[in-house]
Specification:
Blueprint lengths: L10 H7 L39 H5 L15 H33 L10 H26 L2 H4 L22 H19 L3 H19 L11 H9 L9 H6 L9 H4 L10 H4 L4 H4 L1
Helix pairs in contact: 3-6, 4-6
The structure holds zinc ion (2 copies).
Length: 285
């Protein structure tokens, strides 16, 4: 079944880029994918409506080609406003107080505002350790949230968006925001007694990367969103960030059989991956 990309490119453009779309119910919007069946749900997920601000003309003529997922419709404005409110609540009422609460622990372990800046090599080592700690804590807390006991009451909120947009990276139940978003990011600096410069750089990087992983576009020279995008579509695959623990636990076996896996690379050119690695013909029908 065909669908209409937001930029309304001609049919020939669509055929050239071999953009395919999943079936979706008329009138269904992002946020209506229930995710109740956490076992390999093939639900009719819908894509987000995103704006490309500055991309090469080739892309701006065919933004659909940049999508990690070809699913697309418009975002329900009511759902979007509700999501923005939740994200602001999480940032202002949870993240900020949590950092204030943990500051004395940081100060006790190693004053984050000390005069000496860390050396560049130490900073790189810290970043590597932060990333590993984040991978471990995020993977296991995320898998726990997919347990039926916690999924319905907590994590289902984040999965209302089966084809997310950037801001949905922090659209989560408050408990999930503490356990799965904040703690995995903040434990590293606590353990390492890091300087404020390392902490702010790490938090900024983590926020940018999680936003990219939810944005729905596979943009050149930026991290691939395919992995987490697949998680939002299938629910029981790709729980981690790096993919290391998914590989060890075999929770990426389905993903590895898809075209999304082949596209899960750093895009080093301006040809959309939906053109260079198109879906197989049978999926396009
Ligand atoms: Zn997500
Ligand atoms: Zn999940």
């Amino acid at each position: 079944m065909g669908c209409q990309p937001e930029s309304q490119p001609s049919l020939s453009t669509l055929e050239a880029s071999q953009v395919t779309c999943k079936y979706m119910e008329p009138g269904q919007r992002n946020g209506e994918g229930s995710g109740d069946n956490v076992q390999n749900q093939e639900g009719p997920g819908l894509g987000g409506s995103q704006e490309l601000l500055a991309v090469p003309q080739h892309f701006s003529q065919n933004p659909a080609g940049l999508r990690a997922s070809c699913e697309q419709v418009t975002v329900d404005p009511v759902k979007l406003h509700q999501s923005i409110r939740t994200v602001l609540f999480n940032q202002c009422m949870i993240s900020f107080p949590m950092v204030v609460f943990l500051y004395p622990f940081l100060k006790w372990w190693g004053d984050p505002c000390r005069r000496e800046l860390p050396t560049f090599h130490w900073f790189l080592l810290e970043l590597a350790i932060f990333t590993l700690i984040e991978e471990v804590l995020f993977y296991y807390s995320h898998r726990l949230l997919h347990h039926p006991t916690f999924y319905k009451k907590i994590h289902k909120k984040h999965h209302e968006w089966t084809a997310p947009i950037g801001i949905i990276s922090l659209y989560a139940h408050p408990i999930e925001h503490v356990v799965s978003n904040m703690l995995p990011a903040i434990v590293g600096p606590l353990v390492m007694g890091s300087h404020l410069s390392s902490i702010t750089t790490w938090f900024s990087l983590a926020l940018i990367i999680t936003t990219i992983s939810h944005c729905g576009y596979h943009l050149p020279f930026l991290p691939s969103p395919e992995f987490h995008d697949y998680h939002h579509r299938k629910f029981n695959q790709c729980y981690g960030v790096l993919g290391v623990l998914d590989h060890l636990h075999g929770t990426d076996t389905m993903f590895k059989q898809t075209k999304a896996y082949e596209r899960h690379v750093l895009l080093l050119g301006f040809t959309p991956l939906s053109e260079s690695i198109p879906e197989s013909p049978k999926k396009m029908e």
